[in-house]
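Researcher: Please predict.
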Amino acid sequence: MVRPFKVKGGGGRKRKKRDESYSREEEEEEEEVTEQFIEEESPKNPRKEEEEITTRDEEDNPNEELAGIPVVLSNQKSDPGVIFILEKASLEVAKVGKSYQLLSSEDHANFLKRHNRNPANYRPDIAHQALLMILDSPLNKAGRIRSVYVRTEKGVLFEVKPHVRIPRTYKRFSGIILQLLQKLSINAVGKREKLMRVIKNPVTQYLPLNSLKIGFSHSSEKLVDMNDYLSVATGNDDNLVFVVGAMAHGRIDKEFADDFIS
């Protein structure tokens, strides 16, 4: 019986190896083509698209209000306010003994008599009570008072911010006024803001243009009701300036007021 002829070198195995290598290369090529096709057909990252849309909208509409961030529009036209001027306040500093003090009729009566001065004219408590009433008023709590100016009998003019808390006791008030007249300003604690400061005369240069200056005088013959007077004499855009005397005797100057009422 004749045996089958055997080819040297294992040709059959080589064919199988070649067929397997070809099949593997074809599968890898098909996988690369499939992945490339999927990448071309699949959409982009949705987050990136949202970011691109958002930036485009912002570029197209830069003034558009962003969602979730409230934007407060500023009103350029400010509401009319009220300004107080305390005229002829008896706030004078003198050296009594070894220290400087704020002169008053109660504490320095003998000192004033020795210097031929009338003790009845030295009433710093009037300015103290007037400032307390103005700064504690509902008008100031509503934010309608713009500023308060005080001019002394000697002509020294200083400004008081509406949000200042004036001391309740006269002793502490006299110490603050003494410091103000010596150092020309008082700063807030831990801040550079000047709560009270001495400024240059005249006071009219600090008043708004569209303001009505009303002076109070007990001797005025024009006795009015404040609500009726303001409703007739003033407009909606007028700033009111009230000139009040902070002295025990005398009258305020007419140059500071357009009208005198009682």
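Model: Confidence is low (pLDDT under 50) at residues 33-44, 46-77.
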